[in-house]
# Entry
Amino acid sequence: MATSRVPTPVSVPVQKPAIPQLFALRPLPPNVELVPLTHELLPAYKRLNALTLPVAYPESFYKETMTEPYLGITLVALWHSAPSQGSGATLPAEPPRLVGAVRCRLLPSSQLYISTIGILAPYRSHGIAMHLLQAVVRKAVELHSVKSVVAHVWEANDEGLEWYKKRNFEVLGKEDSYYRKLKPQGAFLVKKLIGVGDLLGSFAAEEKTTNDIAT
Ligand SMILES: CC(C)(COP(=O)(O)OP(=O)(O)OC[C@H]1O[C@@H](n2cnc3c(N)ncnc32)[C@H](O)[C@@H]1OP(=O)(O)O)[C@@H](O)C(=O)NCCC(=O)NCCS
# Structure
Protein backbone atom coordinates (compact mmCIF):
# COMPACT_ATOMS: atom_id res chain seq x y z
CA MET A 1 0.00 0.00 0.00
CA ALA A 2 2.69 2.51 0.97
CA THR A 3 4.59 4.22 -1.81
CA SER A 4 7.92 5.98 -1.57
CA ARG A 5 6.48 9.45 -2.14
CA VAL A 6 3.11 11.05 -1.58
CA PRO A 7 1.31 11.58 -4.89
CA THR A 8 0.27 15.12 -5.66
CA PRO A 9 -2.78 15.97 -7.76
CA VAL A 10 -1.95 16.63 -11.39
CA SER A 11 -3.78 18.73 -13.92
CA VAL A 12 -5.53 16.05 -15.95
CA PRO A 13 -9.18 17.09 -16.22
CA VAL A 14 -11.42 14.07 -16.54
CA GLN A 15 -15.08 13.63 -17.37
CA LYS A 16 -17.08 13.89 -14.13
CA PRO A 17 -20.02 11.49 -13.70
CA ALA A 18 -23.54 12.75 -14.23
CA ILE A 19 -24.39 12.60 -10.53
CA PRO A 20 -25.64 15.92 -9.18
CA GLN A 21 -23.88 17.37 -6.16
CA LEU A 22 -25.67 16.73 -2.88
CA PHE A 23 -23.86 19.60 -1.23
CA ALA A 24 -20.95 21.94 -1.81
CA LEU A 25 -17.48 20.66 -1.01
CA ARG A 26 -13.98 21.71 -1.82
CA PRO A 27 -13.60 20.35 -5.34
CA LEU A 28 -11.91 17.05 -6.00
CA PRO A 29 -8.47 17.21 -7.59
CA PRO A 30 -9.14 17.50 -11.35
CA ASN A 31 -7.42 14.18 -12.05
CA VAL A 32 -9.83 12.22 -9.82
CA GLU A 33 -12.88 10.61 -11.38
CA LEU A 34 -15.76 8.87 -9.58
CA VAL A 35 -17.18 5.99 -11.61
CA PRO A 36 -19.32 2.87 -11.15
CA LEU A 37 -17.53 -0.38 -10.35
CA THR A 38 -17.00 -2.68 -13.34
CA HIS A 39 -15.78 -6.28 -13.71
CA GLU A 40 -12.51 -4.85 -15.02
CA LEU A 41 -12.04 -2.80 -11.84
CA LEU A 42 -13.14 -5.57 -9.46
CA PRO A 43 -9.62 -6.97 -8.75
CA ALA A 44 -8.42 -3.45 -7.85
CA TYR A 45 -11.45 -2.99 -5.57
CA LYS A 46 -10.62 -6.27 -3.79
CA ARG A 47 -6.99 -5.12 -3.33
CA LEU A 48 -8.19 -1.78 -1.97
CA ASN A 49 -10.35 -3.49 0.67
CA ALA A 50 -7.52 -5.84 1.65
CA LEU A 51 -5.22 -2.85 2.13
CA THR A 52 -7.60 -0.49 3.92
CA LEU A 53 -10.04 -2.61 5.94
CA PRO A 54 -9.41 -5.08 8.79
CA VAL A 55 -12.04 -7.56 7.58
CA ALA A 56 -11.48 -10.07 4.76
CA TYR A 57 -14.55 -10.18 2.54
CA PRO A 58 -15.56 -13.53 0.98
CA GLU A 59 -16.02 -14.05 -2.74
CA SER A 60 -19.81 -14.09 -2.18
CA PHE A 61 -19.57 -10.45 -1.03
CA TYR A 62 -17.95 -9.44 -4.32
CA LYS A 63 -20.38 -11.53 -6.37
CA GLU A 64 -23.24 -9.74 -4.61
CA THR A 65 -21.52 -6.37 -5.17
CA MET A 66 -21.71 -6.89 -8.95
CA THR A 67 -25.49 -7.36 -8.82
CA GLU A 68 -28.30 -4.86 -8.26
CA PRO A 69 -29.20 -3.09 -6.11
CA TYR A 70 -25.63 -3.21 -4.74
CA LEU A 71 -23.85 -2.21 -7.95
CA GLY A 72 -25.94 0.93 -8.40
CA ILE A 73 -24.88 2.14 -4.95
CA THR A 74 -21.19 1.37 -5.34
CA LEU A 75 -18.69 3.91 -6.65
CA VAL A 76 -14.94 3.91 -7.08
CA ALA A 77 -12.43 6.74 -7.38
CA LEU A 78 -9.87 6.66 -10.19
CA TRP A 79 -6.64 8.66 -9.98
CA HIS A 80 -5.34 9.73 -13.41
CA SER A 81 -1.63 10.37 -13.83
CA ALA A 82 -0.15 13.01 -16.07
CA PRO A 83 1.88 11.85 -19.10
CA SER A 84 5.54 11.68 -18.03
CA GLN A 85 8.61 13.00 -19.85
CA GLY A 86 11.04 10.31 -21.01
CA SER A 87 14.35 10.96 -22.74
CA GLY A 88 13.13 13.78 -24.95
CA ALA A 89 9.72 12.18 -25.56
CA THR A 90 6.39 12.36 -23.76
CA LEU A 91 5.48 8.91 -22.50
CA PRO A 92 1.82 7.89 -22.51
CA ALA A 93 0.02 8.33 -19.19
CA GLU A 94 -0.25 5.26 -16.99
CA PRO A 95 -3.72 3.71 -16.74
CA PRO A 96 -5.82 5.34 -13.99
CA ARG A 97 -5.40 3.81 -10.54
CA LEU A 98 -8.35 2.78 -8.36
CA VAL A 99 -7.55 4.61 -5.10
CA GLY A 100 -10.87 4.57 -3.25
CA ALA A 101 -14.35 3.09 -3.15
CA VAL A 102 -17.65 3.09 -1.34
CA ARG A 103 -19.98 0.07 -1.43
CA CYS A 104 -23.43 0.10 0.14
CA ARG A 105 -26.54 -1.95 0.68
CA LEU A 106 -30.11 -1.12 1.53
CA LEU A 107 -31.62 -1.75 4.94
CA PRO A 108 -35.29 -1.66 5.96
CA SER A 109 -36.78 1.75 6.77
CA SER A 110 -35.05 3.38 3.78
CA GLN A 111 -31.59 3.24 5.31
CA LEU A 112 -28.41 3.25 3.23
CA TYR A 113 -25.80 1.04 4.89
CA ILE A 114 -22.14 1.67 4.08
CA SER A 115 -20.60 -1.79 3.76
CA THR A 116 -17.11 -0.55 2.84
CA ILE A 117 -15.48 2.83 2.39
CA GLY A 118 -11.73 3.12 1.98
CA ILE A 119 -9.06 5.23 0.37
CA LEU A 120 -5.47 4.10 -0.21
CA ALA A 121 -3.30 5.82 2.41
CA PRO A 122 -1.18 7.96 0.03
CA TYR A 123 -4.33 9.38 -1.56
CA ARG A 124 -6.13 10.47 1.63
CA SER A 125 -7.10 14.02 2.67
CA HIS A 126 -7.99 15.13 -0.85
CA GLY A 127 -11.71 14.90 -0.09
CA ILE A 128 -12.08 11.68 -2.09
CA ALA A 129 -14.00 9.80 0.63
CA MET A 130 -16.32 12.74 1.24
CA HIS A 131 -17.06 13.09 -2.47
CA LEU A 132 -17.66 9.34 -2.78
CA LEU A 133 -20.06 9.47 0.17
CA GLN A 134 -21.86 12.48 -1.22
CA ALA A 135 -22.21 10.92 -4.68
CA VAL A 136 -23.40 7.54 -3.43
CA VAL A 137 -25.94 9.12 -1.07
CA ARG A 138 -27.27 11.20 -3.95
CA LYS A 139 -27.60 8.09 -6.11
CA ALA A 140 -29.31 6.17 -3.31
CA VAL A 141 -31.78 9.03 -2.77
CA GLU A 142 -32.57 9.11 -6.49
CA LEU A 143 -32.78 5.33 -6.96
CA HIS A 144 -34.15 4.15 -3.62
CA SER A 145 -35.43 7.21 -1.72
CA VAL A 146 -33.16 6.51 1.23
CA LYS A 147 -33.72 8.66 4.30
CA SER A 148 -30.62 7.98 6.38
CA VAL A 149 -27.07 6.63 6.19
CA VAL A 150 -25.68 4.12 8.69
CA ALA A 151 -22.36 2.33 9.14
CA HIS A 152 -20.46 0.16 11.59
CA VAL A 153 -17.00 1.33 12.63
CA TRP A 154 -14.58 -1.06 14.33
CA GLU A 155 -13.99 0.15 17.88
CA ALA A 156 -10.20 0.23 17.32
CA ASN A 157 -10.60 2.46 14.26
CA ASP A 158 -10.32 5.87 15.98
CA GLU A 159 -9.51 7.64 12.71
CA GLY A 160 -12.54 6.18 10.95
CA LEU A 161 -14.87 7.05 13.83
CA GLU A 162 -13.54 10.62 13.93
CA TRP A 163 -14.07 10.93 10.19
CA TYR A 164 -17.76 10.02 10.57
CA LYS A 165 -18.21 12.24 13.64
CA LYS A 166 -16.76 15.24 11.78
CA ARG A 167 -19.37 14.59 9.09
CA ASN A 168 -22.04 14.86 11.83
CA PHE A 169 -22.78 11.17 12.07
CA GLU A 170 -24.30 10.34 15.46
CA VAL A 171 -22.92 7.41 17.44
CA LEU A 172 -26.01 5.34 18.25
CA GLY A 173 -24.24 2.76 20.37
CA LYS A 174 -21.67 -0.01 20.53
CA GLU A 175 -22.21 -3.65 19.53
CA ASP A 176 -19.75 -5.69 21.57
CA SER A 177 -19.26 -8.80 19.42
CA TYR A 178 -19.90 -7.37 15.96
CA TYR A 179 -16.53 -8.40 14.45
CA ARG A 180 -16.06 -11.99 15.65
CA LYS A 181 -12.69 -12.40 13.94
CA LEU A 182 -11.16 -9.15 15.21
CA LYS A 183 -9.74 -8.17 18.57
CA PRO A 184 -11.30 -6.09 20.00
CA GLN A 185 -14.61 -7.30 18.58
CA GLY A 186 -16.80 -4.26 19.11
CA ALA A 187 -18.20 -1.83 16.57
CA PHE A 188 -19.86 1.56 16.87
CA LEU A 189 -23.04 2.08 14.90
CA VAL A 190 -23.13 5.56 13.38
CA LYS A 191 -26.05 7.23 11.64
CA LYS A 192 -26.96 10.41 9.84
CA LEU A 193 -30.41 11.47 8.63
CA ILE A 194 -30.73 12.93 5.15
CA GLY A 195 -32.30 16.37 5.45
CA VAL A 196 -35.11 17.72 3.28
CA GLY A 197 -32.87 20.59 2.12
CA ASP A 198 -30.46 18.15 0.54
CA LEU A 199 -33.05 17.09 -1.98
CA LEU A 200 -33.83 20.63 -3.09
CA GLY A 201 -30.42 21.41 -4.52
CA SER A 202 -26.83 22.22 -3.76
CA PHE A 203 -25.70 24.53 -1.03
CA ALA A 204 -23.37 27.34 -1.83
CA ALA A 205 -20.75 27.23 0.86
CA GLU A 206 -18.61 24.49 2.28
CA GLU A 207 -19.45 25.45 5.85
CA LYS A 208 -22.98 24.31 5.09
CA THR A 209 -21.60 20.81 4.62
CA THR A 210 -22.40 20.03 8.24
CA ASN A 211 -26.08 20.42 7.42
CA ASP A 212 -25.94 18.29 4.31
CA ILE A 213 -27.41 15.26 5.89
CA ALA A 214 -29.07 16.92 8.80
CA THR A 215 -29.26 15.01 12.04
C1 LIG B 1 -11.65 7.31 6.74
C2 LIG B 1 -11.17 7.47 5.28
C3 LIG B 1 -12.15 6.72 4.38
C4 LIG B 1 -11.13 8.95 4.92
O1 LIG B 1 -10.71 9.07 3.56
P1 LIG B 1 -10.17 10.49 2.96
O2 LIG B 1 -10.32 10.43 1.49
O3 LIG B 1 -8.85 10.83 3.52
O4 LIG B 1 -11.27 11.48 3.56
P2 LIG B 1 -11.47 13.00 3.14
O5 LIG B 1 -10.33 13.44 2.31
O6 LIG B 1 -12.85 13.14 2.60
O7 LIG B 1 -11.40 13.70 4.56
C5 LIG B 1 -10.19 13.66 5.30
C6 LIG B 1 -9.71 15.05 5.61
O8 LIG B 1 -9.30 15.72 4.44
C7 LIG B 1 -9.84 17.03 4.42
N1 LIG B 1 -10.14 17.43 3.03
C8 LIG B 1 -11.31 17.31 2.41
N2 LIG B 1 -11.24 17.80 1.16
C9 LIG B 1 -9.99 18.19 1.00
C10 LIG B 1 -9.32 18.75 -0.08
N3 LIG B 1 -9.93 18.96 -1.26
N4 LIG B 1 -8.02 19.03 0.09
C11 LIG B 1 -7.42 18.79 1.28
N5 LIG B 1 -8.02 18.24 2.35
C12 LIG B 1 -9.29 17.93 2.21
C13 LIG B 1 -11.12 16.92 5.18
O9 LIG B 1 -11.46 18.17 5.72
C14 LIG B 1 -10.83 15.88 6.20
O10 LIG B 1 -10.34 16.44 7.38
P3 LIG B 1 -11.23 16.39 8.70
O11 LIG B 1 -11.74 14.96 8.84
O12 LIG B 1 -10.29 16.79 9.77
O13 LIG B 1 -12.36 17.34 8.46
C15 LIG B 1 -9.73 6.91 5.12
O14 LIG B 1 -8.91 7.40 6.15
C16 LIG B 1 -9.64 5.39 5.12
O15 LIG B 1 -9.74 4.76 4.07
N6 LIG B 1 -9.43 4.77 6.30
C17 LIG B 1 -9.32 3.31 6.38
C18 LIG B 1 -10.68 2.65 6.18
C19 LIG B 1 -11.70 3.20 7.14
O16 LIG B 1 -11.41 3.51 8.27
N7 LIG B 1 -12.96 3.34 6.65
C20 LIG B 1 -14.04 3.98 7.41
C21 LIG B 1 -14.54 3.20 8.50
S1 LIG B 1 -15.16 1.62 8.00
About this structure: Residues 26, 52-53, 117-119, 124-130, 153, 157, 159-160, 163, 166 surround coenzyme A (CB under 6 Å). The CA atoms of residues 22 and 106 lie 19 Å apart. Strands lie at 32-36, 74-79, 84-85, 90-91, 97-107, 111-119, 148-154, 170-175, 187-193. The first helix runs from residue 42 to 52.
